[in-house]
Amino acid sequence: MVEAGMETGQSIDPGTPHSAPSCQAVACEVVTVPARQGLEAVDILRRGVGEAVGPVLLDGGGTLGFVVPPGTAAAWDVPGSVCTETEGQGLSRNPEPPVEGSDWLLPPGEADLATDPAVLRAALDEAARLIEAADNCR
C-alpha cells in the first residue's frame, strides 16, 4: 500500500500481505510523499480551520502516507507524490502499522477516516512552496 523510499527507488509492493493495513472496515488509498513535505503538510492541515486530517503513516524509508478516499488514485497528479490503490483492501480502526519499520503519525481512530484529496493537494502545494523558500534562504 505504501510506496516507501520514493527518492531512493525502493518500493513496497501493494500486493504483498503486509503492505496494507488489515482491512475490512473502510476502503481507502494512500498518497505517499517525502517525509519533509508530508510533515509540513500535516502541520498545515492541522492548523487549518475545518481541515480534517485522516490517518498518516510514517515509514522508515523517509516517506509519509496519507489515507485518502477510494478513487483518488485515478486523478492524482501531484508532482513528487504517488497515490496507490489498496487493491480492495481498506483500513480498520486500530490496525498495527502495515509495514515493518513504520508507525502511525496520526493513527486510525484518532483521526478522520480519510484526508480530502483536494485539501491534501492544497496543503502539499503550500508545503512545497514553504520548503523551497526555506531552502533558498540558506
Any overview of this molecule?
The chain is α+β, with helices and mostly antiparallel strands and 138 residues long. The protein is 24% helix and 23% strand. Helix 1 (35-47) crosses helix 2. The protein contains 2 helices and 5 strands; from the N terminus they run E-H-E-E-E-E-H. The chain is globular and about 45 Å long. The model is unreliable at 1-24 (pLDDT under 50). The longest helix is centred in the last third of the chain and has 20 residues, at 117-136. The protein has helices at residues 35-47, 117-136; strands spanning 26-34, 56-58, 63-68, 82-91, 103-106. Strands 4-1-3-2-5 form a 5-stranded antiparallel sheet. The termini are far apart.
Helix content class: 10-25%
Percent strand equals 15-25%
The gyration radius over C-alpha positions equals: 14 Å
SS content category: alpha+beta
pLDDT below 50 for ≥5 consecutive residues: which ranges? Answer: 1-24
Tally the beta strands: 5
Strand order of the largest sheet: 4-1-3-2-5
Query: What's the rounded overall pLDDT mean?
Result: 77
Principal-axis shape: globular
| Separation, N- and C-terminal Cα atoms | 36 Å
Identify the quaternary structure here.
single chain
